[in-house]
Amino acid sequence: DMYYTYSEEGQFYFGNFSNGNTYLREGWNGLYNVIGVANTIINDMPAPAASNGVPEADIIQGIAESRCIRGVCYFLLSQYWGDVPIISNGSEMVSSGNFQVPRNTRESVYKFAERDLDYPISRP
């Protein structure tokens, strides 16, 4: 019983989106922001945490939770946009200065997301 006019919000109802849809752009940016934080925890947190006395079990759990969240984000990105870039280490991208990231196929994004989602299960 919902009715929308053909505005940015209404495009979800009709399933026809314009390039400038604010909601889609914010969704894309938001998911990649979460992926960036997860990548920082996965790649950059273990060494400083260990050197500051954080127990190994807590570090492993933090990595597992971050990979699970990153997997969900990539699943959602691929559901909405199909082929999307997989960025697993943003620090390397920034240090190299290469911001032209190619898109990965939907199938490969799903496999990447599946590995991330299975990671917490495979940990002790």
Strand content: under 5%
Shape: elongated
Structural class, please? Answer: mainly alpha
Major beta sheet, specifics?
A: none
β-strand number: 0
Mean pLDDT, rounded to whole units? 86
Number of helices: 6
Low-confidence stretches: none
Radius of gyration: 17 Å
Task: Please describe the topology of this protein.
Layout: H1 10-14, H2 22-44, H3 46-51, H4 56-81, H5 90-96, H6 106-122
Helix pairs in contact: 2-4, 4-6
Short characterization:
The protein is mainly alpha-helical. The chain contains six helices and no strands.
Which features would summarize this protein structure in a list?
124 residues; mainly alpha; 0% strand; elongated
Describe the overall structure.
By secondary structure, the protein is mostly helical. Helices cover 68% and strands 0% of the residues. It has helices at 10-14, 22-44, 46-51, 56-81, 90-96, 106-122. Helix 2 packs antiparallel against helix 4 and helix 4 packs antiparallel against helix 6 (106-122). It is elongated.
